[in-house]
Write a structure and sequence with these properties.
By secondary structure, the chain is of the alpha+beta class. The protein folds into four domains: 69 residues, no CATH class; 98 residues, Nucleic acid-binding proteins (OB fold (Dihydrolipoamide Acetyltransferase, E2P), Beta Barrel); 68 residues, no CATH class; 117 residues, no CATH class. It contains 13 helices and seven strands. A five-stranded mixed beta barrel has the order 2-3-4-6-5. A hairpin with a 7-residue loop joins strand 2 and strand 3. Helix 7 packs across helix 8.
Length: 370
């Protein structure tokens, strides 16, 4: 058996369960092991029946006696038994439509029971309790119990019972993170993280498993993005559809001298990196981030003008017409101030193209060099 083994060969179950798993996206053993819990119930503390509140879900140790089927009207089957916790406190256990428990639960044997408590008329009852052998190895009690996203006939109880014995195959997962990253970030290994995310041994180790799997998801997402960027750049370079624009240091210095303020260090760095990208044989992919008023428009204006003075066309796009008109005014002022001190051989033609323009006006706007 390996991670690619079809789920129908991994677990023995009814066709309706296999169909439900398919609808959940669980097709292989790997899919099942990567079907993570949505939350956890802390059932690590054992209580006695005199300590619990009405409606509380608890884990207690004790034994059953006098199990019997109770006749009912209709199609519902009812099974009842007397239960005594390890201090002798009594309760009545009730199962609906689970007559098989009469064959599976031994009498007068120390067991671990998990159930929701109901107190009524001075009596305590256990509603459809889950029963496991005492002494460790429980999957429904005795620790942080996984609660899975459920679908159709698939319940958390069913998933816990199926996934727990298959966790030995978590060793089949290849470690996708570099060892240096694992050491530097103090991350849990992939095998251990998968095991802990399903049946955590402590809150601390559960958090480390979550951290590891979250880090891996982001790491692979970033790695995929870098790979796609590299392939796209190589394709663009091969097709030769991109025009390289050399950085003109004197132009940048001259532009700075025409500004009514001194550019900040951050602006200078951003401008330098953008103009460096212009020199590369493939299109730039860069996000310039900054607060309102931080000077992004000046950076854009230098980039635009650097392209235009080297024989290219350039455009700045805005999400709204109001902002487009504001950019038109501010960038025009910056460029006019530059041209006043450093006249160009060919004047720069600046036009505004917005959705409210009529078709004839748009056609006129698009004529000539922009």
């Amino acid at each position: 058996m390996n991670l690619e083994t079809p789920i129908s060969s991994v677990i023995s179950t009814k066709p309706e369960y296999l169909k439900a798993l398919e609808e959940m996206g669980v097709h292989t053993l790997e899919d099942l092991l990567l079907y993570f819990p949505k939350s956890y119930e802390d059932l690590s503390e054992y209580k006695t029946l005199d300590q619990v509140q009405n409606g509380e879900k608890v884990t207690v140790k004790g034994f059953f006696q006098h199990m019997k089927a109770v006749p009912t009207k209709g199609k519902i089957s009812l099974t009842k038994a007397d239960f005594f916790d390890h201090e002798g406190n009594p309760a009545e256990a009730v199962w609906f439509n689970q007559s098989f428990v009469r064959r599976m639960i031994p009498m007068d044997t120390q067991l671990v029971v998990t159930a929701k408590i109901q107190r009524q008329y001075g009596k305590v009852s256990l509603q459809s309790p889950m029963v496991e052998t005492a002494g460790g190895g429980q999957v429904h009690s005795g620790g942080l119990i996984p609660v899975y996203p459920q679908h159709a006939v698939i319940t958390s109880k069913w998933l816990r019972e199926k996934i727990n014995p298959l966790l030995v195959y978590a060793k089949e997962f290849e470690e996708c993170l570099p060892e240096a990253v694992i050491q530097e970030e103090d991350l849990m290994g992939k095998e251990e993280a998968v095991q802990e995310i399903h049946f955590p041994t402590s809150q601390k180790r559960l958090q480390k498993a979550k951290d590891r799997l979250a880090y891996e998801e982001l790491f692979l997402l970033q790695l995929n993005a870098v790979q796609r960027k590299k392939e796209w750049q190589e394709s663009a370079q091969k097709n030769g559809h991109h025009h390289e624009v050399k950085m003109d240091v004197n132009f940048v210095k001259n532009f700075f001298s025409t500004l009514p303020f001194a550019p900040t260090g951050a602006q200078k760095v951003a401008i330098y990196e953008i103009l460096q990208d212009f020199e590369k044989p493939y299109p730039m992919m860069r996000l310039l981030e900054g607060d309102v008023g931080s000077g992004k428009t000046v950076v854009a204006a230098i980039a635009l003008l650097n392209a235009v003075v080297h024989g290219q066309q350039a455009a700045i796009m805005a999400p709204t017409e109001v902002l487009a008109r504001q950019h038109m005014v501010s960038i025009t002022q910056l460029i006019e101030a530059y041209e006043a001190q450093f006249p160009l051989k060919r004047p720069i033609n600046i036009q505004l193209l917005v959705g409210s323009l009529k078709p004839k006006e748009k056609a006129q706007t698009q004529q000539g060099d922009k």
